[in-house]
Amino acid sequence: MPLTTIEQDYRTEVVRKTIHLTGFAIPWIYYYVDRPFAVAVLIPFTVAALVIDFGRRGDGAFARWFGTWLGPILREKEKGEQRTLHALTWFFIVSTVMVAFTPRYVAILSISIMLLADAAAALVGRKYGRHKVGGRSLEGSAGFFLAALVIVAVTPRVEGRPGEWAICALAALVGAVVELVSQDPLEDNVTVPLSIGFTLWLGYALAYPGMDLNAYGLVR
């Protein structure tokens, strides 16, 4: 029995988010290596993503190959004459920036939350979204928040103080709200991790000004 358009769109989104979740390699690896090594690894991947992204434009051989094999999983805004950068390219860019310029714990937790929670928001929203806000749904945002709390629960705190849980939960909530209101041309792969990271950094600075957020993972 042929799939309906809605069913096909949902399956395509599952494929997109499965690829998206492979990004967990970044925070996982960063937990075990130092910042210079992590940045040195991320920069070539980011450059490669940019080269591929610009190479798929036009009507050359590579663009035709890309369109044939990967075109079906691209969003509409990533196609056509006014195509934007691919979500994966934005992910590499913001991951590189966060690893290079934010405290270790902030980068690891922000990227991790974004990966799982964004996938949950998309899949829950497409399947159960009824109450729309722009092109998104409150149900999707609820999925984002719950998935973010799962990441918070399984990620060790810096020093294990009770107040750290409240800071991380607040960051998860901020991420859910920002994901909900991030409409085009804003890219949620940028706005979400940056907003989570800012909330974490500010929350820790206010509640635990002496805590070293870089004393996490390898250097712990």
Separation of the first and last Cα atoms: 55 Å
Q: Can you tell me the overall shape?
A: globular
User: Helix count, per DSSP?
Assistant: 9
Largest sheet: 2 strands, antiparallel
**Cα gyration radius (Å):** 18 Å
Describe this structure in words.
The protein has 220 residues and is mainly α. Helices cover 69% and strands 2% of the residues. The chain is built from nine helices and two strands, in the order H-H-H-H-H-H-E-E-H-H-H. It has helices spanning 5-21, 25-32, 35-55, 61-69, 87-101, 104-128, 138-154, 162-181, 188-207, and strands at 132-133, 136-137. A hairpin with a 2-residue loop joins strand 1 (132-133) and strand 2 (136-137). The termini are far apart.
